[in-house]
Amino acid sequence: MLASSVLFFILPILLSPLLSSGVQFPFNVSYNIDCGGSTNSVDQFNRTWLSDRFYTGGSAGLVSEPLHFHPLQEKTLRFFPLSSGKKNCYVVDLPNGRYYVRTFTVYDNYDGKSHSPSFDLSVEGTLVFSWRSPWPEDISQHGAYSDLFVYVNDGEADVCFYGIATDSPVIGSLEIVQIDASSYDSATIGTNHMLVNYGRFSCGSDQWGPGFTNDTDFFGRSWQSDEEFRAKNSNIKRLSTSKTIVNTNQLPNYFPMRLYQSAVTVTGNGALEYELQVDAKLDYLLWFHFAEIDASVNAAGKRVFDVVINGNNVTRIDVYKRVGGFAADNWHYVVKNLSDTVLTVKLAPFVGAPILSGLENYALVPADLSTVPDQVMAMRALKESLRVPDRMGWNGDPCAPANWDAWEGVTCHPNKEETALVVSQIDLGSQGLKGFISDQIGHLSNLVSLNLSSNFLEGTLPSRLGQKSLVRLDLSNNQLSGSIPESLASSSLLLVLLNDNLLEGRVPDELFSVGVHGGSIDLSGNKALCGVSPLPSCPLFWDHGSLSTGGKVAIGLACSFILCVLLLVIYICCIRRGNNDYDFGLPQDLMSLAAKRNKYQRQKSLMLLEMESQHAKGFPSTLNLRSESS
């Protein structure tokens, strides 16, 4: 994508910190990572360098001639052999925002093979740097720095390497610095482009800044000399000053004062010309820096010049008229529709001679599509649960960059809106996996095919397995146990291979429709599956190793019936008891009257018995005598 001879510029083997010079920089997130370093260290500028052992895999190496490199972090390197997988990444947790990312890359025959490697490097899922063997000799021996500006929107920065053929990618150091999100006219350019450095130079001075001198640049930018970019026919005059330059170190770009304290102009009536190597397929952001540091130019109209880009006169500049003397000024322009790999910049005189303090040239690299965040988390969960080996290179974004292969065994495609990438297929059959299937697999809502057959997977089938999109499912020849989830019955499956596992319980009736509708299903060789023919019938009240739905309903109805009967009995008892209290609780007077009546009846009975006895002995009864006398 981007030629390595264009992308990389050599810096001295020094690094400098982001020092405060009386100006408050509002961001404090900064990582300096010593790739291949075994311990943390502090450099001569009091910057702490972190060992990379917690950020990536691969193997540590050492340059073949460490005495040629002064800082410790440039003597070590990290390389990623094929056994680590085709794709390896540094993953650094960060707050969302905009970041300056710089890498130092060196080979120096660390492996004794005299073969500089071919590999690609991506940042946040977008391919930005391409190294191709053989490297230029000076870069191979002394190393090169590359840098860019990128937005981080997912809470972590991913810097990934993709090996070409059997070559092992290498890196010497990695720096990440948070910067102002609105810098470099992001409001116009947008947040979906990376700014990849194709040349950043300071005019009239040697190289300086972090990696060169102890001068401060809050963003961490290093500034080259403009000499190698100038056209050879320019008659150059250098200007410099130690006076204070106003309007420096101000938000959002925080350009340092040192940049504006030197400049170049031309003698005579000539133009100031530069030739910049570019990739004609991309657009470029040119950022010009001016300061009128010639005390003799003390009024507007004394120095006026035209800016001509690729032969097109795009603007006229009068620095003093714009900002006055000894004041920083900058102007930018986007170059589009290039037809050549050389971009020409000419400052042509109109009044007096042109002047330039510095120039930056950034390729506007569109951010590639990345994988839907939920699916990234799901795939990382699967990586852990399946214990995917390092050799498969499951690192970084599962699908991005799109022009690389996705994770081994993974197939991706853009979503319907073409705004992100989604996982459509996972094929990890016969890979010796020994874990389990994470329930996070349910987030792979675009999964069409899943093949985890002939491994050593254990555990149960996730309850969320069975996305609407799923067409092919092969989990055969594992050690999966438990029941088949009902979710599988609601998918669009045409192939279901669950044979030779330890599954048990009722098979959802709808799952058998796969075979009816022309698909294929194999459930043989399991522990105790039951359901429709040809499987054995399931117990009426027992299913999936526990009570079936029917069994639970029956128990519920029985309990309800018993409860109703119990309540009815209690109710009847209460009613009868209430009735007894009303009918048989007699008043005391009634009881006394009944007792007298009973006594009278007993006396009458005794008198009748006595009269009958006297009549039997021949005595007239009193009753008869009274009748005769009357």
Describe what you observe in this structure.
- By secondary structure, this protein is α+β, with helices and mostly antiparallel strands.
- The protein is 17% helix and 30% strand.
- The chain contains nine helices and 36 strands.
- The strands form eight sheets. Strands 1, 2, 3, 7, 10, 13, 14, 15, 19, 22 and 25 form an eleven-stranded mixed sheet that branches. Strands 26-27-28-29-31-33 form a six-stranded mixed sheet, with no helix packed on it.
- Strand 20 and strand 21 form a beta hairpin.
Q: Helices and strands: which structural class?
A: alpha+beta
Q: Helix share of residues?
A: 10-25%
Beta strands, count: 36
Largest sheet: 11 strands, mixed
Q: What is the residue-averaged pLDDT? A: 87
Radius of gyration: 46 Å
How would the global form be characterised? elongated
Strand residue content: 25-35%
Give the topology, please.
Blueprint lengths: L3 H4 L22 E5 L6 E2 L5 E4 L7 E4 L13 E4 L7 E7 L3 E9 L13 E5 L2 E6 L5 H6 L1 E9 L3 E8 L6 E2 L1 E7 L6 H4 L3 E10 L21 E2 L10 E5 L21 E5 L5 E6 L5 E9 L12 E6 L2 E6 L1 H5 L4 E8 L6 E10 L3 E2 L1 E9 L6 H14 L23 E5 L6 E7 L21 E3 L20 E3 L6 E2 L12 E3 L4 E5 L6 H4 L3 E3 L5 E3 L11 E2 L2 E2 L1 H35 L4 H29 L5 H8 L1
Parallel strand pairs: 1-3, 14-15, 27-28, 28-29, 29-31, 30-32, 31-33, 32-34
Antiparallel strand pairs: 1-13, 2-3, 4-5, 5-12, 6-11, 7-10, 7-13, 8-9, 8-11, 10-14, 14-25, 16-17, 17-24, 18-23, 19-22, 19-25, 20-21, 20-23, 26-27, 35-36
